[in-house]
Amino acid sequence: MEMSEAELISRCQQGDRDALREIFNQYQKKVYRVAYGVVRQREEALDIVQEVFIKLFRSIQHFKGKSHFYTYLYRMTMNTAIDHTRKMKKVPSSSVDEDEGFQFSDDPEKRPDRIFAHKELEEKVRRAMDQLSPDQKAALIFREVEGLTYQEIAEAMGCSIGTVMSRLHYGRKRVQELLKDYVEGGR
Amino acid sequence: MWKGGGRMKRECSSVSKLLDKYFDQELTLEERSLVEGHLPDCPACRRALESMETLRNFIRSPVEEAVEKETFPWVWEKIERGIQQREGPGLWESLRDWLSLPFLLKRKIWIPAVATAVILILVMAPLLFKKISSYPVPSVVEYVESETYNVMIYQLENQDVTVIWLFNGPEEET
Questions:
Q1: Radius of gyration of chain A from Cα atoms?
Q2: Contacting B residues, span 24-43, partner chain A, CB-CB under 8 Å
Q3: Is A117 helix (H, G, I), strand (E, B) or coil?
Q4: What one-character-per-residue DSSP string does A159-179 give?
Q5: Rounded distance between C-alpha atoms, residue A91 and residue A84, angstroms
Q6: For B106-131, how does the pLDDT look when each residue is reduced to its tens digit (9 = 90+)?
Q7: Which among A63, A168, B110, B126 is least surrounded, fewest beta carbons within 10 Å?
Q8: DSSP secondary-structure letter at B148?
Q9: A63-70 mean pLDDT
Q10: In sequence order, what are the beta bridge partners of B82?
Q11: d(CA A100, CA A117)
């Protein structure tokens, strides 16, 4: 029998791991999207997803329902992802996935030079995003990746809508400057 | 239709401040009409919107691709293991949880706790010192002198012991 979200949360607060599993099934992709948006690497994003749900199980009794559950989870995910990037900052990341080998193909998108260019752009985007303050980065990811409204972003970040707008505006401006050659070329 | 240069510039200055909200579909109907009325005549504002769209694709597309092909292998199992390993907060987590309590709540706990501890110390200290430094002092119950023996009977304070001391005459002891 399907349970409502409120029932799932209540059971999870009582230590019911089946309820947590159900929440995980419902939200794993959303959490992964935010995590991947921040770190832009699969293994790190999966580690963050794991960490978020473990933290959720331990802290969910503090959730009083004053905000929407999904904004509470988004905030936890963003904080965990940003903490993760701080720890990993000293470790240089490779720009090309070593698992992807070059393969001959008729598909233009699968040509080695295109794959490399694609990866190179991804790396540039990741580095540009890393230049932002954590708040600007969070606002940009919530808006561009998750499509949250200004109100939802404000709730997730615990700030006003005006602050959200400011962070988005200056975050976009900064990344556009850093990716000027790519953005203006429309590549 | 040609719009005067000055009017165009003023309008562009107003509209450019609304472009982010227009792009995010957060405008009122009135504001949206203003922007959409301005865009056909303003290449600069159109270029700004195109740049935002390009940037959004750069940020979003890799994420969409990654999510689409992700199957989350073994993630739930790792979560369960992580919960089991961390079940029962350790001393550090307990301390951290306690320290993360709201400031007001902390004062209600630690002020009375410290006050109670101080009172207990003040009350118990004299008893402790008394206990440590006290030594059972014998108290004499009876002393009898005679020509042959002198007898002293005394009891120790904290022990149920009675000592009978016989000694010969006033000068000798037995």
A1: 19
A2: 24, 26
A3: helix
A4: S-HHHHHHHHHHHHHHHHHHT
A5: 11
A6: 667 788 888 889 999 988 888 877 65
A7: B126
A8: S
A9: 90
A10: none
A11: 13
